[in-house]
Amino acid sequence: MIQIGEKIPAVEVTVAGTEGHKKVNVAELFAGKKVVLFALPGAFTPTCSAAHLPGYVVHADDLKAKGVDMIACLSVNDAFVMQAWGESQNAEQLTMIADGGAALTQALGLVLDTGDFGGIRSQRYAMVLEDGVVKLLNVEAPNSFEVSKAEAVLQAL
Hints:
- The protein is an alpha+beta fold.
- The protein has a single domain (12-156), classed as Glutaredoxin (3-Layer(aba) Sandwich).
- Helices cover 30% and strands 30% of the residues.
- The protein is built from six helices and nine strands; from the N terminus they run E-E-H-E-H-H-E-H-E-H-E-E-E-E-H.
- The protein has helices spanning 26-30, 46-58, 60-65, 79-88, 103-108, 150-156, and strands spanning 12-17, 20-25, 34-39, 70-75, 95-98, 111-113, 120-122, 125-130, 133-139.
- Strands 2-1-5-4-3-8-9 form a seven-stranded mixed beta sheet.
- Strand 6 and strand 7 form a beta hairpin.
- The longest helix is centred in the N-terminal third of the chain and has 13 residues, at 46-58.
- It starts with 11 loop residues before the first strand and ends with a helix.
- The mean pLDDT is 95.
- Belongs to the peroxiredoxin family. Prx5 subfamily.
- This is Glutathione-dependent peroxiredoxin.
- One of its GO terms (molecular function) is thioredoxin peroxidase activity.
- InterPro entries: PRX5-like, Redoxin, Thioredoxin-like_sf, Thioredoxin_domain.
- The active site is at residue 48.
């Protein structure tokens, strides 16, 4: 698993937005920025839709007031799902990242294998990166939702 002090791997992901989908190298996307990256097991799933993503939408201005340049939400879903989910959650101030083949999730060592329920997904976590270097990494224990919520990241900043 990636550790504090390490650089985010240079892996290609898709940014899903209202202007379409764009393949980007995540190391380049985060270069020169202070980024809050949070990941969750799946778009349109109960905790993710009811609490995790909405918390970052509600606290986006608070995070930006703490010097955060970008708030990015990652899930092992395709770009169409991430775009639709972002639109349904009024998350236009967030960067929605589709890790469709789980390449970044695997490179980070944060895979959650849900078997027949959904397959390879991301563990639930939040990290703060500065110029691509991990400064904070909060990985949730199984079936937990405490350390990766927006309020916990705000408190740590």
